[in-house]
Amino acid sequence: MHAIVIEDxxxxxxxVPEPEPGDNEVIVDVTAxxxxxxxxxxxxxxxxxxxxxxxxxxxxxxGVISALGPGxxxxxxxxxxxxxxxxxxxAERVAVPAGQLxxxxxxxxxxxxxxxxxxxxxxxxxxxxxxxxxxxxxxxxHGGGSxxxxxxVQLGKALGATVLVTARAAKHERLRALGAxxxxxxxxxxxxxxxxxxxxxxxxxxxxxxxxxKYLARNIEALAPGGRISVIGFQGGARAxxxxxxxxxxxxxxxxxxxxxxxxxxxxxxxxxxxxxxxPLVAAGLVKPIIHTTFPLAxxxxxxxxxxxxxxxxxxxxxx
Length: 320
Ligand SMILES: NC(=O)c1ccc[n+]([C@@H]2O[C@H](COP(=O)([O-])OP(=O)(O)OC[C@H]3O[C@@H](n4cnc5c(N)ncnc54)[C@H](OP(=O)(O)O)[C@@H]3O)[C@@H](O)[C@H]2O)c1
What we know:
It comes from Actinoplanes teichomyceticus. GO terms for molecular function: NADPH binding; oxidoreductase activity, acting on NAD(P)H. The chain folds into two domains: 2-116 and 260-319, Medium-chain alcohol dehydrogenases, catalytic domain (Quinone Oxidoreductase, Chain A, domain 1, Alpha-Beta Complex); 120-256, Rossmann fold, CATH 3.40.50. Helix content is 30%, strand content 28%. The chain has helices at 37-43, 110-113, 117-130, 147-158, 172-178, 191-198, 213-221, 244-249, 264-277, 279-283, 300-309, and strands at 2-7, 10-15, 25-34, 60-68, 80-84, 93-97, 101-103, 138-142, 162-167, 182-185, 204-209, 223-231, 253-256, 291-296, 315-319. α3 crosses α4 and α3 (117-130) crosses α9. With 320 residues, the protein is an alpha/beta fold. The longest helix is centred in the middle third of the chain and has 14 residues, at 117-130. 47% of the residues are buried. The protein has eleven helices and 15 strands. The strands form three sheets. Strands 3, 4, 5, 6, 7, 14 and 15 form a seven-stranded mixed sheet that branches. A six-stranded parallel sheet has the order 10-9-8-11-12-13, with helices on both faces. Bound molecules: NADP nicotinamide-adenine-dinucleotide phosphate (NAP).
């Protein structure tokens, strides 16, 4: 089969060995894969795949099951699925633990389904399962125009939260159309002041942060009493000083997780939660895949260049 391999920080479409399904794994014949910011880090050598994962990039895909490994129950060859991957989505076929498979949500095409597993599992596990975002609370999403952000805005609205986003001004109109109540231009505005203004001085109950060190102190300033901050990205650095006094005064929580490094049973529990709680919202049309554009899989390098520019809104897909 063919896959995208990384050689000297470049992506190359080349022939590679066929994947073999291990115990409780299936082979998925890939229809579409999605580009994630982490794939760019992997290309640069900063984000190696966890042990046992394929070397090729690609954290999610959709496609059709073409083979079953030993012990797989409840799935069949020919089934249309999408999947959360530890790697290997930029390929014609990939081995996937059965617990990381999801059905194609009702009303979506097989291609569209590739845009959801990584963002749905990341946002749900942090914002719903861990931070317990509730109806009536205020939810601040940094990087509202990202793949993660466009999903988080819609999920926050579907759960009944008031949603505030930071993004470049050019993306604001489309983010309001997705449900954002307040859009903050982080290049021109102080987001702490904007959050306080929008909440009568109270602050945000839940913050989903992709910037990291650069925003830690200001996220605590922007937090409501009892607020929760989930840091899932370090685009603004990983090392920061934490003012525990400021956090204590808010009775706040800061947590940080990585989805990719979690063991298969943990990922499978997250996938099951997403299927139960998020897939009905997708089927109801309350949460949609936001697809900026598509590229042929063999042209993944162009797709990554677009992501580097940050001119996209939502997801960039790679098609077989
Ligand atoms: N921990 C995990 O398990 C996990 C899983 C998935 C993703 N992530 C992380 O989540 C982040 C988003 O991933 P993605 O694949 O959705 O990336 P993406 O689509 O490439 O989005 C990145 C976004 O960052 C925004 N941005 C840059 N500087 C900003 C700032 N100072 N304030 C606010 N926004 C800013 C850009 O939007 P503008 O055009 O508005 O600047 C851009 O849209 C990445 O950092 C990724 O590593 C973490």
